Automatic annotation (TrEMBL):
It holds the Pfam family GerA. Belongs to the GerABKA family. The chain crosses the membrane at residues 271-293, 343-361, 367-386, 398-422. InterPro entries: Spore_Ger, UPF0353/GerABKA_families. The lineage of its organism: Bacteria, Bacillati, Bacillota, Bacilli, Bacillales. Keywords: Membrane, Transmembrane, Transmembrane helix. This is Spore germination protein.
């Protein structure tokens, strides 16, 4: 049977656990805590100092005199055990009593708020999430200082006991999406949930798809925008990133910096990203298909150049393309795993040396080298890393399909891809909305970023309870001060 004395005995086997007896006349106080989790100054001056100054005090008076705001009384074995591992000091009033005073003395150790590392921006906020859940909640609270902001806290992981916070706006967020998200997090049955990326994979609608169905970010301003739009944000203690849902396919090619730039510039940049993704996926497969099956479609202007570049290459186009694609992936992985300065050097020098050597050794044509290099650069324009990795992998099925059936193979592979995307959902919301199902009103912030005067309505596919952002007539009726 679980009991407080048994808990003290079990924890005493840990070297960093401190437990001792403090006498108050005839009453013994048993004080226990983990010195690796508690703040020593707070413990010595505010908690233990309070006990030394009161030699004869009742249980209720002892609870009131401890000058710490976050404290409680409990006799529940599970609660006390959980608080121990959160940095609480547990004070048991007498050995026979099961009531304990739980005082928060957790040491807030970790890095300070810094600039975003993977989502750096020239315009806008320079703050990024850190590994402390309380600090991250503060970064969101100060951006959304409204009473309707709700934070629900859950615990996941049978071993990690990770704190997970679900953030939404009461009266705005669709309750069905909220219930679905909370239910899936509560149903997570895994021993170690160490990061939000693990949680993303566990609660997505289709975990077998290479397409992400939630968007991860390290920027609190992006999270604040998503929450105010009606989406649900999830943070985890110990993770420097958050994620939000439901999302559609097109949001993965939108960066929050678009909203800091003039709408014409932001729209052009957004269209460039869309075009870059299509180029990255189809450039190499089209090269294989045209060279292998459709040589007659090559213009007479480019034909001599292509023939001269391939005249000494002993491999068929499929082998040539796979060699270059694998070399690009090797350079990318090497640059990502090495320290920053060395990784940049490897990427630049390795790309130049290997590319030049491959052309001179007749392992590949210089025409293909340009195509593969441009495809690699185009894939970097995707702002969300998980979608960028998906685009990189997506090229290979198209390359093999192009080798088997030429342009017909590319079309068949494209149809299969679209069919897969049509079946995907994010928290039950269609993945290709607003194009499928088609919603004319929601096209305004998909391919282009309109001016803010057009933002009077939130996305209808999010099914928010307050679809109107502002009164457009009232906003357009502003007058100059001299009028």
């Amino acid at each position: 049977m679980n009991s407080i004395p048994r808990l003290w005995k079990e924890l005493s086997d840990s070297a960093d656990f401190v437990c001792y007896e403090h006498k108050l006349n005839e009453i013994s106080l048993f004080i226990g805590y983990f010195k690796s989790l508690t703040e020593s100054e707070l413990l010595q001056w505010h908690i233990l100092g309070c006990l030394k100054n009161n030699s004869d005090i009742s249980f209720e008076d002892l609870y009131r005199c401890i000058p710490v705001a976050e404290k409680e009384v409990s006799s529940n074995w599970d609660i006390i055990q959980n608080k121990f591992y959160r940095g609480y000091v547990v004070i048991q009033y007498g050995f026979q009593s099961h009531d304990c005073i739980l005082v928060n003395a957790a040491a807030l150790k970790g890095r300070n708020v810094s600039i975003p590392e993977t989502e750096f921006t020239v315009e806008g906020s320079k703050e990024a999430f850190v590994e402390s859940l309380d600090v991250n909640l503060n970064l969101i609270r100060k951006r959304l200082p409204i009473p309707e902001l709700r934070i629900k806290e859950l615990t996941t992981g049978s071993i990690s006991k990770s704190r997970v916070a679900i953030i939404y706006i009461e009266g705005l967020t669709n309750e069905q999406y909220l219930e679905t998200c909370m239910q899936r997090i509560e149903d997570v049955d895994f021993d170690q949930v160490t990061d939000t990326t693990l949680l993303q994979q566990m609660i997505e609608d289709n975990s077998n798809s290479i397409f992400p169905q939630t968007i991860g970010t390290e920027r609190p301003d992006y999270v604040a925008w998503a929450v105010s739009s009606g989406q649900i944000c999830v943070l985890k203690d110990g993770a420097p990133t958050a994620f939000f849902a439901p999302v559609n396919f097109w949001q993965f090619f939108i960066t929050y910096e678009d909203y800091y730039l003039p709408w014409i510039i932001a729209s052009i940049l957004r269209l460039i990203r869309m075009f870059s993704v299509m180029f990255s996926v189809f450039a190499s497969p089209l090269y294989v298909a045209v060279i292998t099956y459709h040589g007659q479609s090559i213009s007479s202007v480019f034909l001599p150049t292509i023939i001269s570049s391939r005249i000494n290459v002993p491999f068929p186009p499929i082998v040539e393309v796979l060699i270059m694609e694998l070399v690009i992936e090797l350079l990318r992985e090497a640059g990502a795993r090495l320290p920053t300065k060395i990784g940049q050097t490897i990427g630049i020098v390795g790309g130049i040396v290997l590319g030049t050597a491959a052309v001179e050794a007749a392992l590949t044509s210089n025409f293909l080298l340009i195509i593969v290099a441009l495809s690699a650069l185009a894939s970097f324009t995707t702002p969300i890393f998980r979608m960028s990795a998906t685009i990189r992998i997506l090229r290979f099925p198209f390359i093999f399909a192009a080798q088997l059936w030429g342009l017909l193979g590319i079309i068949i592979c494209l149809i299969a891809l679209i069919a897969h995307l049509l079946r995907l959902t994010s928290l039950g919301m269609p993945y290709l909305v607003p194009f499928y199902p088609f919603r004319t009103a929601d096209l305004f912030d998909t391919l282009i970023r309109p001016p803010y005067s057009k933002f009077e309505h939130r996305f209808s596919f999010l099914r928010t309870r307050r679809p109107v952002r502002f009164n457009k007539k009232k906003a357009n009726s502003k007058k100059d001060i001299d009028e």
